[in-house]
Amino acid sequence: MQMSRDSFPTDWSPPPVEFLKKSKKVLQAHRRPPEDMEKEHPDSDQKVELASLEELFWNMAGPSQQAVTPEIFSGGSGCYVNNLDYLLQEKRMLVEKFSVSLQVISPVHPGETVFLPRRHPLPCILDSSSLKPRSQLEDLFLRSSLSQQLSFLHKGLLSNLYLHASDCPLPLLQWLFQLLTWPPETSSKAFGLLWDLSIDGLFRQPDEDMRFWCPSLQEVKEVFHSLGAYNPALYPQGPFQHSTRGLEGGAGLGLWKPQDPPQEVALDIKLSYIYKFLILCFLVQPRSYTDASILGLIELLCRAGLDVGLRLLPKTDLQQLLLLLLENIQDWPGKLQPLCCALSWVSDHHHNLLVLVHFFLDVTPRGRQLRSHLSLMVIARMLGQQEALPLSGEKTQLSLLSQLLSLMRPSSLRQCLGAETLPSCPGQQPKASAELDHKVCYLCHSLLTLAGVVVSSQDITPDQWGELQLLCMQLDRHISTHIRESPQAMHRTKLKDLATQTYIRWQDLLTHCQPQGQYFSPWKDI
Questions:
Q1: Residues paired with 115 in a beta bridge
Q2: Closest Cα to residue 177, out of 294, 266, 273?
Q3: Phi-psi category of residue 321: left, alpha or beta, with phi > 0 → left and psi -120 to 50 → alpha
Q4: Who contacts 191 (Cβ-Cβ below 8 Å, separation ≥6)?
Q5: Cα dist. 277→197, 204, 413, 476, 480 in Å?
Q6: Tens digit of pLDDT for each residue in 79-92?
Q7: How many CB atoms lie within 10 A of CB 16?
Q8: What b-and-e string marks burial along 321-347, b requiring 16 or more CB atoms within 10 Å of the CB?
Q9: Contact present, 468 and 509 (Cβ < 8 Å)
Q10: Residue 391: its pLDDT value, please?
Q11: Within 10 Å of residue 486's Cβ, how many Cβ atoms?
Q12: Residue 252 backbone class (left: φ over 0; alpha: ψ -120 to 50; beta: rest)
């Protein structure tokens, strides 16, 4: 009975008696000494016996066994069933047939190298040239070395000097803000004192003009440089030049102790101190920064948030600060598009830009607006349509997304990326083609997620029902139907799942949005 190549025979039965007799005879022949075998069976008789046995065996076996392993019974020195070379070859065939690709769409973005590790903190010098001591203890503090001044801070003597004083020196506040970049043992003390002095200054003179110090954009850039930021985009005017005065007596070296937290955690703690103080500044003095300074600060913070060492750490303080910055932009409609354009160039990787969009929470009207505009801008940039598709005009964001969605077809993305990545050598093309397929699905996954952000940020009205319906049709036509799943390409399955989930969400929005009569009553004008 003929069987398919990979099926198990349905009429399986024990081997015939003739086969068992011949098998027993051949085994007995192999157990005898070579001299006896030569006497009983000439060479020609042995070959005929083995040939008939082989023929009988393959007549019983299925066609799949005949096609896969015909060479293991061939003559020669390696003509035995347990051939190690063949077993190894068969194992490679099975691994290749049932292997699963390790190229998956990573849930974690690659990040950007923003902060480089510093072995020792940069010196923070207190400028006391314009200060006049009001007590002997303050005079001793101002004349002390950096290591002794840090000892004042750690022992709590600075709280006794300045916490309830009539006026807190501005150089002291600037010095404490710079110390936020030092190891946690020092930065925690500096942040606590800076916070207490700032809060105390709000209630000391209620009838007079409130004096509250807020760091400028340049001062924020300086502390980021002290943390190890090296990206030239963070410092268009060049890195900050610190004083040449060093750490006398190795001041600060003893602060790096074995119990200090890991580098990434320590960096996150220092950034959290900076973010918390800036939140306080914008709550107390919202008009102390211009719109240009706020836009520059937002771009600076977004670049820092993409640092590769901070990928797995929460961004709660950063997200709260960004929402507060958006609310303090005075010319919001005029600054929205320039801000989105600047943020779309913070990174060249699509997954990093997707994470950047999620830095802005969907809890305020301005946050929703920025998420939608920025997502469209990132999609347009990744598809090379940023200049040809402005975000201003009569068209709605859903209609603009409809134009971009048709360009997100995996075959179109493969054609664009393949011109740069496919090698000319034929031997390297299969591996390069698999890598290209992974890049295409990875990019399409990010773009489709951004498209979902655009739709979810909209308040779908009845007049937009037709545009959303068109998006559903395009999603199914250009993306879902072009994804061919395979066990060797799990990234396609993940992209297929995302497309299906997105389609279901958009269909759910359609069911909750009452369409206009023109979409479901085509005969009303007749």
A1: 229
A2: 273
A3: alpha
A4: 176, 180, 273, 276, 277
A5: 12, 19, 44, 48, 47
A6: 555 677 777 777 78
A7: 11
A8: bbbbbbebbeebeebbeebbeebbebb
A9: yes
A10: 59
A11: 13
A12: left
Q: Please, are residues 255 and 182 in contact by the beta-carbon 8 Å criterion?
A: yes
| Cβ neighbours, 10 Å, residue 124 | 25
Residue 254 CA to residue 181 CA, distance in Å, equals 16
pTM of the model: 0.75
Closest CA to 340 of 380, 311, 290, 309: 380
Q: What percent of the chain has pLDDT above 70?
A: 69
Question: Whose CA is closest to 322, among 285, 366, 292?
Answer: 366
Using CA atoms, how far apart are residues 452 and 328, in angstroms rounded to an integer?
28
* Type of residue at 62: G
Question: Which pLDDT band, with edges at 50, 70 and 90, does 14 fall under?
Answer: low
CA 514 – CA 521 distance, rounded (Å): 13
Could you give the CA distance from residue 524 to residue 526 in angstroms, rounded to a whole number? Answer: 6
The predicted model gives 182-193 an average pLDDT of 95
Q: What are the tokens at 354?
A: 């997707």
At 112, give phi and psi (nearest 5°): -125, 145
Q: In whole angstroms, what is the distance from residue 263 CA to residue 63 CA?
A: 62
Beta bridge partners of 489: 486
- Contact of 165 with 135, CB cutoff 8 Å: no
Residue type for 20, please? L
